[in-house]
Amino acid sequence: MNFPKVGSNIQIHSYKHNGSLHRIWEDTIVLKGTSKVVIGGNDRIIVKESDGRNWRTREPAICYFDSETWFNTIGMIRSDGIYYYCNLGTPFTWDDEAVKYIDYDLDIKVFPDMTFKLLDEDEYELHSKAMNYPPELDGILRRSVDELISWIHQRKGPFAPQFVESWYERYLQYR
């Protein structure tokens, strides 16, 4: 099986439960690409929304996708520290076109002091009903929120000290 090659430029695609394309991040450089983990870096890239709008990210970021977790993280490097935006969604897949996952609305924003806030619970409830999320999915996502919070508290994975900084240094070598 092919995996994204280190140093290559890829896209990241998120979808909704009904199969519709939600968002595309362009021009992410692969820093690590295996069957288990994809780590990418980008800076001020174009993001395309499903409604046709485009916007540009504001800062360098390190993205972390794990094939065994129902969340992914984006560590954003800002002047006052590292902020994380964590998307609750399916484990990633790779199909030679892009890293892909289904976004399930719930997000956690983590601040530089590692405090955090659960976001978009109202959007989750709305989409859960509109797209008929199965009951077992709710259980998976609630457990994944707990797992993600545990990773934050333990400083595990992308929340480990120097994780984002060291991967950003590697990103600068490819940029």
From TrEMBL:
Mg(2+) 1 binds at residues 87, 103, 107. Mg(2+) 2 binds at residues 105, 107, 120, 123. The active site is at 23 (proton donor). InterPro entries: DUF402, FomD-like_sf, Ntdp-like, SA1684. Its EC number is 3.6.1.15, 3.6.1.6. It holds the Pfam family DUF402. Residues 18-156 form the DUF402 domain. The keyword Metal-binding applies. It catalyses: a ribonucleoside 5'-triphosphate + H2O = a ribonucleoside 5'-diphosphate + phosphate + H(+); a ribonucleoside 5'-diphosphate + H2O = a ribonucleoside 5'-phosphate + phosphate + H(+). Keywords: Hydrolase, Magnesium, Metal-binding. Its cofactor is Mg(2+). It comes from the Bacteria. Has nucleoside phosphatase activity towards nucleoside triphosphates and nucleoside diphosphates. Belongs to the Ntdp family. HAMAP family: Ntdp. NCBIfam families: PRK13662.1. This is Nucleoside triphosphate/diphosphate phosphatase. It comes from Alkalicoccobacillus murimartini.
